[in-house]
Request: fold
Amino acid sequence: MKTMILAVSFLAAALLPAAAQAAKIRVPADFPTIQAAVNATTGYGDVIEVSQGTYLEAVSLVFKDELTLQAKKGHKVIIQSAAATPLTVSLSSCVHVKNLRLEGATGSSGLDVNLSNDVLVEGCSVSGSGQDGIRILLCGGVTVEDCTVKWVTGSGILVYGDNVCLLGNTVLHAGWNGMRLEGLALTVDGNTIKDCGQRGIVLGLSDTTTEGALVVKNRIDGAAQDGIYLDTGADSCVILSNTILRGDDDGIEVALGAADNVLQQNNVSSTIGDGFEVHCWYGSFCKNKVKKAGNDGFWVAGDSSHCLFFKNTITSSASDGFQVNGQDSTYMQNTANKNSGWDCVLYVAPGTNAFIDNKFGTIAE
Ligand SMILES: [Ca+2]
Ligand SMILES: [Ca+2]
Reply:
């Protein structure tokens, strides 16, 4: 037994030199600038710990593996750049960026992560950038968690990549969209988006596929356009338990060409446009609640078909509850009442849709 323990100890000792190469580098104690510290990292698992201060730099991490860049615990660390991006992570993997404030960047984005994988950005804040707040391009496996983006000219967070998670972030006063994403297996969970100049969350950048996104428990308040928008090519996404209020356009719009999406248990209230604007094919709309829509509760457009509307509740819309223009869809066990127009109005031949067991206060054909 003793021999075995010795053997294990020997093995551990043999493995130690590799681990021992990981260094802790302090800024400004060891290097005056963050970039100098980044350049000095060589091994795997290095940690750069930055002490309180404002660093006037545009820091770039290129070809780095297993590197952590973080503010010292309890220290307020600002990386400020007048025009260029304050922090860029490129061609790197296993990078952890934590508790940094990225400011300025009037000519660019606040944080760029590109051509990288396995990157975690945690507890950072971005403000003042002249383009997007955080931009993740051509990446796989990036998580942005508990970050704040505010007062940026472009979108709050822009994603073009696969397996990207946006968790518990706050976006305030983005000039364009709060979050705009395209890619496979994206997760947008528990974020707060307030007062952005365009849409709250957009799935789709171009017409290529955004497949299998999960958008859950986000709160979108005061978007100048739609709260959530599924663009053409957003397929097989799940939009679940989001809250959308005070929008200037529709609560949720699903564009023509988006297919096989599930929109369930979302709460939409006090929008200026429709609660839901539906153009899509094979959409499933279940147990959503729309209250005080400025137009229709559900405007089901003439280009939509093969959708299921099940157990949705619509009250107090300024126009109709359901305005049905689409075809070949099923309306089952929905409730609509106290809407200013008709609770349900059919502009297509009723025979193209199935109505089963709904509770509509008023109905017109
Ligand atoms: Ca719209
Ligand atoms: Ca609309």
